Each structure stands twice: as C-alpha cells, then as structure tokens.
Amino acid sequence: MTNENTSQSTDPREKSPVIITPQQPGKGLQRAFSSLRHRNYRLYWFGQLISLMGTYMQTIGQVWLVLKLTHSAWQLGLVGALQALPILLFSLFGGVFADRWPKRRVLLVTQAAAMIQALLLWALIATGTLQLWHLYVLAMLLGLTYCLEMPAHQAFVIELVGREDLPNAVALNSSLSQMMRIVGPGLGGIIIAVSGVTILFLLNALSFLAVLLGLALIKSHELHTQALPNPNASKRQSTWQSLREGVSYVWTTPSVLLVILVVGLVLLFGSNFNVVLPLFATDVLHAGATGFGFLSAAFAIGSFISTLWLAWSNSAPTIRRVLFGTLVFGVLEAVFAVSRIYPLSLVLIASVGFAESAFAQLSFTTLQTVAPDHLRGRVMSVTLLFFDGSVPLGYMLLGWLSGLYGASSALIIGALLSLVVAGAGWIWRRRILQNW
Fold first, then answer.
1. pLDDT tens-digit map of 224-234
2. Same domain, 147 and 95
3. Taking Cα atoms as reference points, which of 57, 133, 147 lies closest to residue 96?
C-alpha cells in the first residue's frame, strides 16, 4: 500500500476516486511546481525537457528534409501519416507492455530505440546516402516507438509523484511539451540556418541521453507502489487476453468510456483546425503569413498558460470539469470561426488553446485516477488510440469540409459538432448518475 492520502468518490455513481488535494508547498507560482519536490520526478522531468527539445527540433528538420528531397506538400503529408499510422495499429499493445513490465524498463527500451533511430537518420544524412524511402521507414519506426512509449509514460507519472500530486505532475508534463513545441522548432530553424540540418539530427540523438540518464538514476524503492494488487497476478495471460481485459474494462466502466469517447470525438471534430488555419489567416482575416504566425503563437501561448494554471491549482479532476471544458472549447471555437476582427481573433484563438489544453489534461488526470493500477497502462493506450489517432482523420475531415464550404464554414461545422458531442456527454453523465 502507498502512504498517499486517497479516498473513494463521495458519489460512487461516477466510479471515480477523488484525490484529497494536500496543502500546497510554497506560495504563489511555487505551487505550480510542487511535483518537482519528488526527486524521481525531477530527474525524469528535466531529462524530458532536453529530450523533447531535440524531438521538436527534429520535427522541423524532417519537414525541411522532405521539402529538400521532393519539393512536394503531398510527400510531407505522407511522411506525417506514416508516422501516425502505428498509433492506429499498435497503440493498444503499448498498454499491455506497460502493465506487464516495469514502466521504467519500458521507457528505457523505447527511449534507447528512439535514440538509435535518430542516430541512424543522422548517419544517413552525414554520409550522403539518405533516400526518401529511408524517411518513410524511419518515420514509421518512430511512430511505433511512440505508441509503445506513451502509455508507459502516462502511467508512470503516478508512480513518480503519487496520487496527491498527480494533477500537478500531468499539467507540468503538458506545460513542458507546450514550451518545447514553441522553443524546439525555433531553435531547430536557427541551427539549420547556421550549421545545416546534419548537426540538428545529431543533437537530437544526443538529447536522448538526458532522459536515459534520468531514468537510470531513478530510485525504484522511492516509487509510489501500487495501492491495489493485480487480481490476475496469479494467472498467466497471453497478450490477447491482456488486451481484451483492458478493452473490456474501458467498455464496461461508464465513467472511463464517457471521457474517452467524448474527448476523443471533440478532438476529432474541433481540435484539428491547424490544417485550415493558414487559409483562415489569409483568406478570411486577410492577415497574410505574418498574421498566421501570430495566430499560431497565440494558440500555443494560450495552451501553455492553461497548463501552468492547472499545475498551480493542482485540483482534483472530475468528469464534470472535463465536460464543461469541452463545452467552453466548442463555444470559443465557434466565435473564432465567425470573427473578422484580427485582434479579437488573436484573443479568441489563445482562449481556444487554453480551453483545449485544459479539458485534455483534465481528462488524462481523470482517467489515470479512475483506472486500477494493474490496468492503467492499457487504459492509457486506449486513450492514446482515440486522442492521438484522431489527428489524421480530423485533418482529412476538416480539409474536406474546407474544400467544400471554405475555411470559416469548416471551423463552424467542427465547433458545432464538438458542442453536440459535449452536450450528449453531459446528458450521458446524468443518465449514468440516475441509473446507478
């Protein structure tokens, strides 16, 4: 048993434990970083900081390489699709591995595999032997590594900080990703301009050493142990039996199924507007490339502020807060879609980013809190399938709608569909409570 202060939900009909939020250490902004008082989490977080910077540097470097080799936007989309394809095919198996083996071991293996992939890409560029099919294969391998790594990464957080600081830790992880999403591509562009693309991929490969070192230095005896024993620990399950057990749990647990389906569909319909944002900036707001850049930056800033706010509040997650966040997101996106005033659109897109990050992170925290310890990895793998797997489908949907009706109308349709899903989720939640 852990020494964490946890209790079951005061309303059992939602099947979700409530985190008793501890008194926050420190005051003011220090509250936003309360999880860093855990040594193991500090090691992992700072390792991720360096590694993610390299990852987002590689993102822009990969785009540059494809353009340099092909000068084709279609090829850019193909490489991105190949990288996302393993999420649809193999992400569920990542949860099985995360629940079957120690999560730190899974992370060590997957991070080492990602480093080897980056080193191989660097070697191909440095020797002048890189061909387009190499990028296809390496993109798929990177996607495969990602879908095996992410369930373990998400499920490992609670072992690093315990239940009390889980909301803060999830938000800090997200803030780190948002910050590196801003810093990494900019730094990558500077490196390409000054030293060329070859050194960029070498730096990305070396950046994995930071997270590998952090994982190696983590003290296993300081990890927060599982609060509940695995009821199937005495049974030897096959991979398919383990997979079926995880999917069955999601399907038969109303609170988990509600969050995954509602948030997944809202992300599908409303969160993939990046594909039409350049058209919206130029054709609707008439702001040009510079205006598009500021819109993208405003969205990222809003998302980053949201993660810091969630980290500072460290409040207990509830399904109600998740659903409320999806409703606010849909309303803000609809208003942004009809706005024709550029300064107002900047404020609105920042607010959209804030709301999207808020409900997404609250959903992650809620699912990690609800899921039993022995099933958490598999629950997070289903979450990965629905949340990240919606990206290519959402791009195709919004691109198709934009081609038929224009960028503004496509955004309005996406926002309205998101509101319908959020409203249906609210009704579903009430029925769950009434029928318990």
1. 865 444 555 54
2. yes
3. 147
